[in-house]
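[audit] Reproducing an earlier prediction to check determinism. Same input, same settings, fresh worker. If the tokens differ from the archived copy the diff job will pick it up downstream; this log only records the rerun itself.
[audit] input (376 residues):
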Amino acid sequence: MIRSGIYIHIPFCKRKCYYCDFNSYANMEESFKPFKEAIMREIRNRKDELKDIFTSIYIGGGTPNVLPPFYIENILDEIYKYYDISNDAEISIELNPGLIDDEKLKTYKRIGINRISIGLQAWQDKLLKKIGRIHTIHDFIENYDMATKYFDNINIDIMYALPDQIFDDFKETLSNVVSLKPTHISCYGLILEEGTVFYKLYEENKIKPADDEFEMMMYHYGIEFLQKNGYKHYEISNYAIPGYECRHNTLYWKDLQYIGFGPGAYSFVNNRRCGNVKDIKKYIEMMNRTGYAIEDIDVLDEKDKMSEYMFLGLRMMDGVYDKDFKTRFGKSMFSIFKNAIDKNIGLNLLIREGDNIKLTQKGIDVSNNVFEDFLF
């Protein structure tokens, strides 16, 4: 049973990828130690904020494996000391190829990490270079083989609709990734986000995004190919061998509680969403001065909570069940969201089966439009 989760944000990278808008920074090795001490202080200071059994821990970034492995050990030790972590908790860490070695993997295994997520993105060196990745395909294969000696629950991240990526590139990426038999595959379309290198290049007409039809063709091919190869399409961009769905991300989509540590990390506790200051140096300074780094607080009212529950839940292929909605809110989603549900069923974007609604394939293709209808 999924209960609550813990997110740990490691904001450092070797080099920022051209598409990345995550809160991450390159060439800040001098901040590693003060950051580690600051996040351990935050973990201690917020120990009473969410009293529950935690069924997942997710260490994301950035690139967590740029940190010395014993720093990750120190951080997790602090979590184990102050939080009730279930014996079968899913404990994940994101890793980038080219920075994975035997010592790090041994340490991760020893300290309880049992799931790793490796960022590949594409199988062609020319594309990896084009999107600003620091690794080659050779690095990835070498690192993946090394990781399988220690871990049997491995996710691989891949992307489509990249600049200059042709359809055969994507097909080759999918085919080669599936041949490695990871337990989980995340497959994301490129989004040009403001503040990224790619967005600047786009504004300067130096790169051209894939047209919608071509992007949708790649997406549909990915769904069909991965399902044919035994992967369950369980969320808009995520696929798993049955039983290996990511527990931590499912917790977000099911609108359950989580606590986040580190610069820019968000928490959702008792209907309150709060976010830490993003800037690393400011985060460290605030932690040293006050013991807390929260700067953004949003208290959700009943309508906000209902809307969020619907559009997060509809991201999952299983959709939303009215019995679960009633358990959470004491009312039926079919009365609260009657107009939105009827409209989208009429447009063949949603399908109703008993007390369940879920996106159709057509609905998945325009999911953001569907989600907007569930906002008050």
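[audit] rerun output stored. Observation attached for the diff report: Residues 1 and 224 are 30 Å apart (CA to CA).
[audit] end
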